[in-house]
Amino acid sequence: MTVEEGAVYRVVDGQDITGRDVLDLLIAENWEKHLQLFVEYALRKEEIEGAKVEVSPSEAEAELQAVLNEYARKQGIPPSEVKLDKLANELGLAGNVKAMRRDVSMSLALLKIFHREGKLTNIEHVANPAFTAELTKRLQARVVEKGVERDPKKLGAGEAVRIGARGYNRGEVREFMKDMLDQQPRNIIIS
Fold first, then answer.
1. Which of 10, 15, 43, 37 is nearest to 178 (CA)?
2. For residue 190, what is the DSSP state?
3. Strands (E) located in 66-158
4. Which residues of the chain have pLDDT under 50?
């Protein structure tokens, strides 16, 4: 179920436990894991914006369908039986459908960048392991090039992470994490 920040899910000792409280707890529990994902997201976003690459909604949906079809092929099941939310859960992907769509769209933009640079010119889809390998290589190089600071003692007031010269505040990181954590099994919220 989707966690609604303003909804009251429980009352404990007269105190309302809201969706925001649930999300804040999930974010705190998953901070380090998701902070790394945020760093990768920020680096990817910067790369895409710098290259001025755009992906249309129809391109993103077509690529998402290609990802679903590849998953179905590998599992030996008809593509019509694979639904996006089921895929996200079965693959153990952090996040919900919105986060998965964002990831596929960004990955497609990066694939366009690799094509423009003459790399991976024969690769058509982001589900290809060669794309994943090239993306990992690119992100690792950017981390080394820019540097990433996570130590709260070395960050400025309100900063959650600094990538190169750019600091990201906790609110920015929280919004990213919220997209990844706002769909939770019902028993987590009401038990």
1. 37
2. H
3. 148-149
4. 94, 186-191
What predicted TM-score, i.e. pTM, was given to this entire model? Answer: 0.78
Q: Per-residue pLDDT tens for 40-96? A: 999 999 999 999 999 999 999 999 888 888 888 888 888 887 777 666 666 555 456
Q: What span, in angstroms and rounded, lies between the C-alpha atoms of 21 and 15?
A: 11
Gap between the terminal Cα atoms of the chain? 14
Rounded CA-CA distance 104/127 in Å is 9
**31 three-class SS:** helix
Q: Which two tokens stand for residue 141?
A: 């190089």
Q: Which two three-digit tokens encode residue 86?
A: 């089921």
Own/partner pairs, 14-20, CB within 8 angstroms, 24+ separation? 19/189
